[in-house]
Design brief:
It is built from one helix and nine strands. It has 182 residues and is mostly beta strands. It starts with 40 loop residues before the first helix and ends with a strand. Residues 1-23, 53-171 form the PLAT domain.
Length: 182
């Protein structure tokens, strides 16, 4: 089995992910023989892209006193076939200082085909100075599937607030699901 990567694992490079889920590709894409100098990285990228799904994950921190967090936030997407495993939300597309009061942060999550998105688990490691976090909602858009789902939360992820949980399982709000042509 061949699992090519050809991507950065660095917070300050590419899409900011420091862990990647790799998909196996046909050995013809990797093996080099005398007639065929192997496939180009572009072709290889398309082969991998065909086997994976890119999700745009937007996270809204509530507009309450001390709602933001400095802790390390993670998410797991659960589908009808599989789940993504733990994905660290490290590099926000909009904000250098992420998960601040009243702000929306956007992250890119790539994974193998997990099927229809059923639920998410989101939480943090409770590390840092101000760790408590008020999560308003999470929105997950999968352009290749033509689906945008909203996961309302409206609760604290804080050991000293609400029920003391620092991770939550959230289901999509069916009435806020948007279907479109992939």
């Amino acid at each position: 089995y061949y699992f090519p990567c050809q991507r950065w694992l660095a917070v300050e490079e590419d899409d900011g992910q420091i862990a990647r889920e790799l998909v196996p590709v046909d050995e013809a894409f990797v093996k080099k023989d005398s007639e065929n100098e192997g496939q180009s990285p572009a072709t290889l990228g398309l082969e991998q892209k065909a086997k994976s799904t890119t999700y745009s994950v937007k996270v809204k921190t509530g507009d309450k006193k001390n709602a933001g967090t400095d802790a390390n936030v993670f998410i797991i997407l659960y589908g009808s076939k599989d789940d993504t495993g733990i994905v660290s939300l490290k590099a926000s597309k909009f904000n250098k200082n992420k998960f601040e009061r009243g702000k929306v942060d956007e992250f890119t999550v790539e994974s193998v085909d997990i099927g229809d998105l059923k639920k998410i688990k989101i939480g943090h490691d409770n590390k840092g100075n101000s760790t408590g976090w008020f999560l308003e909602w999470v929105e997950i858009d999968a352009p290749s599937l033509g689906q945008c789902l909203k996961f309302p939360c409206g609760r604290w992820l804080d050991k000293s607030e609400d029920d003391g949980a620092i991770e939550r399982i959230i289901f999509p709000a069916e009435l806020q699901t948007i279907e479109y042509i992939p």
